[in-house]
Fold this sequence. Notes:
The chain is of the alpha/beta class. Helices cover 41% and strands 16% of the residues.
Amino acid sequence: PSNAKPRGRQFFNNPGPTNIPDRVLRAMDRPVMDFMSDEFVAIHHACHAGVKRVLKTDQGLYMYNASGHGAWEAALANLFAAGDTVLIIETGYFSLGWAEMAVNLGIKVETIAADWRKGADVSKVGERLAKDKAHEIKAVLCVHNETATGMVLPLSDIRRAIDEAKHPALLLSDTISSLASIEYKMDAWGIDVTVGGSQKGLMLPTGMSFTGVSNKALDVARKNKAPRHYFHWELMNGRAPQKFMGTAPVHMFFGLQESLKMLEEEGLDAVFARHARLAEATRAAVRAWAADGKGPQLYGQSPDRLSNSVTTVMMPEGVSSDPLRKVAIDRYNLSLGGGLGPLMGKVFRIGHMGDLNEPMLLGCLATTELAMKTAGVPFSPGGVDAAIDSLAS
Length: 393
Ligand code: PLP
């Protein structure tokens, strides 16, 4: 019957949310707990410390009952008032989204425009800031890993550009699809606010997000008179013992405690190396599909900017990715990401972040080939072989 549930395990290769490991699910499968109890406060504090280790920061951290959009808004609401100006580096759909939020909060947004396939020219950030003698630009905003295009930004270069321009602008970075998948060093890279979320590299359900906050940013927030409440860092500081606004989501913390344990058992460097390996194999497969010039190809055109957590694959001219994704999920139970905004139908995305290993990736790549055949998408054969060669080397 057409409504029969597909057999076997679903292969889930969306670039967020990601696979929730059984260990995390089991850790969450327990009775509720008083969120003011000593037992929970200890779990909360351990999780705070763990997230700070993943962010590589010794500075502030605030967590919210909200998806990543909440942490985006927390950063903007605490630091800026209507009429302030920020500079955002265009990367794709998510940089546009953060910019739109800023505009809706009354913040003036200037953009360093960029070709989404090539990535932004970081020297333009320094040039723009050097011209801003009155220091009207309060901050530079960027998305470390643009989940829509599968491209990264060199954050330490951006920090250097700000410093070389001798400009006091804060640096805000969205690490929602890079954290715990790709190297991230909040303090060493001079990031003032890091926006993160639960549902990608941290392998948790969606619904909790957080901001790492530098002492410099906290100082700016203290002086900011703009109205805010739910995300107000100073108010949260007063909410001892947890610094949480409202009821703390205890089950999210049970899961977080386990996922932090998993990350630290593997070791963050090994986690990053695993993601690099899986990403390289994915790119090898896509390059093979594109070999005769008629198949899908890598969307990103700057080899040193290609993401290790998500690969965006551009469809051949005139071929939509929608039927391919539909065949993949309906017939083969493989979930692939779609194109966002102007890339809708033009690309599909292979998420390879979070709890993923070689067999899971190879299953995804082989099934993507199968779905391309079924859906009549032209491609050169040999993608899976190329991925195996890449993994074996
Ligand atoms: N920023 C990036 C880079 C993202 O990938 C996403 C979601 O995929 C968001 C922001 C928005 O986060 P959320 O969907 O959790 O609100």
